[in-house]
Amino acid sequence: MAEPSTISPAPLLKDELDIVIPTIRNLDFLEMWRPFFQPYHLIIVQDGDPSKTIKVPEGFDYELYNRNDINRILGPKSSCISFKDSACRCFGYMVSKKKYIYTIDDDCFVAKDPSGKDINALEQHIKNLLCPSTPFFFNTLYDPYRAGADFVRGYPFSLREGVPTAVSHGLWLNIPDYDAPTQLVKPLERNTRYVDAIMTIPKGTLFPMCGMNLAFNRELIGPAMYFGLMGDGQPIGRYDDMWAGWCTKVICDHLGLGVKTGLPYIWHSKASNPFVNLRKEYKGIYWQEELIPFFQSVTLPKDCTSVQKCYIEISKQVKAKLGKVDDYFNKLADAMVTWIEAWDELNPSGAKSAELSNGASK
Ligand SMILES: O=c1ccn([C@@H]2O[C@H](COP(=O)(O)OP(=O)(O)O[C@H]3O[C@@H](CO)[C@H](O)[C@H]3O)[C@@H](O)[C@H]2O)c(=O)[nH]1
Ligand SMILES: [Mn+2]
């Protein structure tokens, strides 16, 4: 029997977390993540041509879905899942049966911290999700639950218990997640700044959620993580994660859940083409000047006690208030409803618990 000191601890949440990867490429990047990812189940969402074979490196436990699978599983409801855009990843969230999700892009690699040590991004996300958030009062020493930190003087003791954490938003060294105009004017800029901080995003504050290095509690907030209608046949792209982040933050604020950003870092290796990105993003760049005030003004009634009910309410307000910005938002509002219907169809127990929690409020 091995000495206790040599037994490595079981990977955190090994059987409670799925790793979702959208891909149009090969998955060689997994070799670098193998020490951290191998114990976990992967859900690979293959975008683009379903007849293409995506090779998954040996030794990983995975399920793979291509467009034919999505159409077969969802039938007509598959219309809400984007094609030819990383937004397709949200199908992986829907089919997962686990409590937690980590999603990562296939051009994101293991980064090193200032000491030169490989960063286990998944482990850090799990720690972020397993400890509370502090959205109601900002702690100036950042995450008070980390070793070596705490609540600072003047922090109300009544708020120190914090709230459950729904989202952990990680960052990127090397290629930062810039929009196309910024990429064009700063083509050589690389993010070399490692900031050793994790912060709760205060209640009432929106943020630009990037889907590249993101983890969330699927049971707390999963139905809000719809990445919208993007890519093929749509007037906009690269606003998939942004849309999900705005809906998610409004719902987290309403339900008293927390969203954190900061550590962990990954190494983002590939800058996507800024001209292609500009074509995808340009409508979003001016639409968002209307979208942000819209999300800042969204109010959810008290009887919206489940994520699904909150999400349906937001879809109604999208149709009422954004439909006049562009007809796209009428389509998006309908797709938001289809997403919830598909989610509840694939996750009947989740839908029931959502109703129960809603029933409890009666
Ligand atoms: O049509 C597509 C294009 C890409 N993918 C997969 O999605 C991710 C991201 O792709 P990529 O690294 O090329 O794009 P980035 O610009 O770096 O992506 C970031 O910007 C946002 C785009 O919405 C998003 O938050 C980030 O992901 C890779 O895994 C590709 O293989 C795809 O599935 N379909
Ligand atoms: Mn990338």
From TrEMBL:
GO molecular function, one term: UDP-arabinopyranose mutase activity
Main location: Golgi
Residues modified by glycosylation: 153
Enzyme Commission identifier(s): 5.4.99.30
Catalytic reaction(s) noted: UDP-beta-L-arabinofuranose = UDP-beta-L-arabinopyranose
Enzyme kind, highest EC tier: isomerase
Site annotation Required for activity: residues: 153, 160
Family: Belongs to the RGP family.
Purpose of the protein: Probable UDP-L-arabinose mutase involved in the biosynthesis of cell wall non-cellulosic polysaccharides.
Record's protein name: UDP-arabinopyranose mutase
